[in-house]
Design a protein that fits this description.
Elements (H helix, E strand, L loop, with lengths): L1 E7 L4 E7 L5 E7 L5 H5 L4 H17 L3 E4 L4 E4 L4 E8 L4 E7 L9 E6 L7 E7 L7 H11 L9
Antiparallel strand pairs: 1-2, 2-3, 4-5, 5-6, 6-7, 7-9, 8-9
């Protein structure tokens, strides 16, 4: 069997052709892993890009931050630890996970709170942002908590 790289459809999708021993030809679309923030934002709607930039702007008002793109998500780092993870950039939303040491169930902003399996020290709080107004006082309060009070908490 041998492989031929036929070409790239976009900067994240390439077509690979394999030819088997029986001359069977198969085509595969290979998704490359995003390695930069631009890779994550490529082909996203203007709304999603605007929401992403609004989230980053709000975070940077609280502290100096660094964005760390990984294979499937973007970490938001405050210089001590990753205080949040942007896990999904949808057509019309940005999904963010805040890891806390305890569940904060008395809120209106998190759509899901889940304990990380195998640990009693981390609860992921899932926030989905559909509009710029979704970053309200309650969300900013949890962002501050992530940046400050739990600064020595959940190591990811």
């Amino acid at each position: 069997m041998f492989f031929i790289l036929l070409g790239c459809l976009t900067h994240q999708q390439c077509v690979l052709i394999s030819v088997g021993e029986t001359q069977t030809i198969r085509a595969y679309i290979i998704m490359s892993n995003p390695t930069t923030i631009a890779d994550f934002l490529a082909d996203k709607s203007a709304l999603t890009q605007s929401l992403f930039h609004q989230l980053v702007n709000e975070c940077s008002k609280l502290s100096d931050i660094t964005l760390h793109p990984a294979k499937t998500m973007i970490g938001i780092d405050n210089g001590k630890k990753r205080i949040a993870w942007i896990t999904q950039l949808g057509k019309n939303f940005v999904h963010v996970v805040f890891p806390f040491k305890q569940p904060y169930t008395d809120n209106l902003c998190f759509q899901k709170i889940a304990q990380v399996p195998g640990t009693t020290k981390q609860y992921n709080h899932h926030f989905r942002m559909y509009s710029k107004e979704d970053i309200n006082e309650e969300v900013i309060g949890f962002m501050k908590l992530a940046f400050n009070e739990e600064a020595n908490g959940c190591e990811l």
